[in-house]
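Subject: design request, 188 residues
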């Protein structure tokens, strides 16, 4: 009888632990879903625990944020201080940052027209730079449709796929630390 009691308690404890694990996973999923509702500003972590990038999702403007226990070591400086779109075309969630496998690079995507910028950040702010990968829109008609374009990482660290979710058109995005080697190739 004692064996059955111990077995029953063990099974109940395992079920309880499994249920708790499922609740935590659901809470994390809920947090991630709610994260998508953040409108004008978002914070993106870097691989350095003290540095983040703050993005204005309406304009594409970015700031390098450094925090520390000492107030004198904190930092909030612009990565790019100019809007990447005209005032009348600003829209919440227009821009989004995608991390790359390189600790110092992100790709900034305009989800409406498919323009992409390579964001190189550094702990020395004077080395920060934003480089356009394509200078023109990937679509002819500039109808404002939220989240039309999205990037997908590939197994190759230097390549992403860009999908137009409306037309189904696809591009290979090749980025590089040498700007002359970066390119966007249409996939037919």
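Subject: RE: design request

Done. Sequence follows.
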């Amino acid at each position: 009888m004692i064996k059955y009691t111990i077995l029953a308690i063990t099974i109940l404890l395992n079920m309880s632990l499994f249920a708790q694990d499922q609740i935590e996973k659901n809470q994390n999923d809920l947090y991630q879903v709610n994260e998508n509702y953040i409108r004008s500003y978002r914070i993106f972590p870097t691989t350095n625990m003290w540095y983040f990038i703050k993005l204005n999702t309406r304009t594409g403007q970015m700031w390098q944020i450094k925090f520390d226990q000492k107030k004198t070591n904190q930092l909030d400086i612009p990565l790019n201080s100019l809007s990447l779109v005209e005032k009348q075309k600003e829209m919440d969630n227009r821009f989004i940052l995608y991390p790359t496998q390189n600790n110092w690079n992100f790709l900034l995507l305009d989800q409406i027209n498919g323009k992409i910028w390579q964001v190189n950040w550094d702990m020395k702010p004077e080395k920060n730079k934003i480089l356009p990968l394509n200078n023109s829109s990937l679509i002819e008609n500039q109808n404002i449709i939220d989240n039309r374009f999205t990037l997908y990482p590939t197994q190759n660290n230097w390549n992403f796929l860009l999908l137009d979710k409306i037309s189904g058109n696809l591009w290979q995005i090749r980025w590089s630390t040498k700007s002359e080697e970066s390119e966007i190739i249409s996939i037919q």
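The first strand starts at residue 41 and ends at 45.
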